[in-house]
Task: structure prediction
Amino acid sequence: MNRKELDPESSPGAAFGDRLRTLRDERGWTQDDLAERIGYSGTHISAVETGRRPPTTRFANSADRAFGTGDRLQRQGQAARHNTLLEGFPEFVAHEARAAEIRLYGVGVIPGLLQTPEYATVLARSAVKRGAITPDQADERVALVAKRQASLARTPPPFVLVVLDEGCLRSSIGEPSVMTAQFERLMEFADLPNTVLQVAEFSMGERRPFDLPVTVLTLPDRKLLSYAESAHRGHLERESTFVLPILTAYHQLQAEALSQAASVAMISQLRKGSP
Result:
């Protein structure tokens, strides 16, 4: 049996997964054995052990009861859940790195795939000042932005369609030079042969089908996945029955948004300092 090697030092989630596997191995249990004891699937156990899914409070408490470890796993799981990444996001990033098509809608701030390092750093440092994350977690966020962007350089490259809410452009992040560089990055992105960039103007109002950021992935086998998040939660949807309506709504969003030419013209004016 192939077993993924774990690096418990890489993240709190990996440390929890390594501990869970060690406790399971000590008792001679398979993943399915543990799953039956705590009311989860063997696939879920595998995802937690390999760090692809963070342990929920219910999961950690159930595992503590099964292993007789008091509240040790619950406390360790709490540290993993307080990691910088939202639930479902690590698995989403793994799928994103091999997707054939990426459709994303950004609200409020420029999405990570399009951020300059300076823009990403300002956002991360702001989160540290608010006490939302630690300095180490801020570094992790910035590094992940770079890693995700690097994955787009694969051959063949994915087809990336982006719609930005106008607020992404109007929100001033950092010094003026940070925004100027960010606008230039957006214009460079729009000029690539495998991308489409559009802006959803404020005037769309109620015709805007999404209130939160959303991404739809088309995998190489044409399977669809969607990922949406709020400030504190992320949700990865794998069932096509639920993803298809999101894809339809995305197409409607594109139809209502500015064309790429008009969108680039707006970004160019903002870069020059014009309203």
Q: What stands out?
A: The two ends are 61 Å apart (CA to CA). The mean pLDDT is 89. The domain at 12-81 is CATH 1.10.260.40 (434 Repressor (Amino-terminal Domain)).
